């Protein structure tokens, strides 16, 4: 026992010294459990061998066992380091993939934005091209209208001027030989041609004033019955020349009307004149009657004929200035094509309206509605006119 104690003490000293590096390595190991396990196994083996009397062999065995544990811990640490490296690489790759996705998204968004911008630019360009085309068409239409107007007005002005000049020259050549009856007839023809020329010029000037917004109405109260009879009497010679029969239908309830007498007379004269002009050996009827509407009392004036009628394709342009159903150079009937346009303007200025129905070869009917009491346009906030 005296010998065993020092041996035990001597054997225990390297075992406890061996535990220090084992513990230090185990602390630095990636897996603490592996280092601790290796140390515990080494201690247990050394203690067991020491108790069994193995002596110095005990600490060698403990060291061997601890070394194996430490090698296992080191191997596990390297494996975990590799796993950590792999995870870092995966994270880096995930970051790269995310950046690539962001770049792709930005590229796609940029491409879509450029595509949208190009589409909008293309639409704007198409709109500009379409607007330019419309402007060009309007300019060409205006040019054609101007050319047609100049051709028409030159012809229409020459006709009464030729009559005035011709009869005047005849009277000047042999004034002493002219009989009183012949002189009166020639002067009457000159006066008629002068009135025709004056009416033509007045129509063009009225249209120009309407377009410029400088047209004025003169509202007054007058008997509609008297105005209608005056217009019928004035158009009777024209109806007789075309062998037409005039028919007048008046309501017994006709009274006074507050409107522009001159403009309303122009409307009636234009409609009756057109009916007699485009009807031969037929019937021209004027019907006048009062009507009640939601906006107040109005008068309905209808002019019906059984003449040549109007092509339905032309009806939308019927009230357009300088437009005629027969616009060819060889047209049978004269005129500038401003009469119905002026009628539409006058009716609108008087607070009424005008419309037409027609069938080619069967005649036409024009209806005019005017309020019984027209408002003075000077009292209205807005002066309305349309083309």
Automatic annotation (TrEMBL):
CDD domains: HATPase_EvgS-ArcB-TorS-like (cd16922), HisKA (cd00082)
Coiled coil ranges: 86-142
This protein's record includes keyword Kinase: yes
Enzyme class per UniProt: transferase
Catalytic activity: ATP + protein L-histidine = ADP + protein N-phospho-L-histidine
Molecular function per GO: kinase activity
Gene3D superfamilies: 1.10.287.130, Histidine kinase-like ATPase, C-terminal domain (3.30.565.10)
rRNA-binding listed as a keyword: no
InterPro entries: HATPase_C_sf, HATPase_dom, His_kinase_dom, HisK_dim/P_dom, HisK_dim/P_sf, Sensor_HK_Regulatory, Sig_transdc_His_kin-like_C
Keyword field: Coiled coil, Kinase, Membrane, Phosphoprotein, Transferase, Transmembrane, Transmembrane helix, Two-component regulatory system
SUPFAM superfamilies in the cross-refs: ATPase domain of HSP90 chaperone/DNA topoisomerase II/histidine kinase, Homodimeric domain of signal transducing histidine kinase
A Pfam family this chain is assigned to: HisKA
Signal peptide (from-to): none
Histidine kinase domain residues: 152-374
E.C. designation(s): 2.7.13.3
Transmembrane segments: 39-72
Protein name, per record: histidine kinase
Organism: Nannocystis punicea
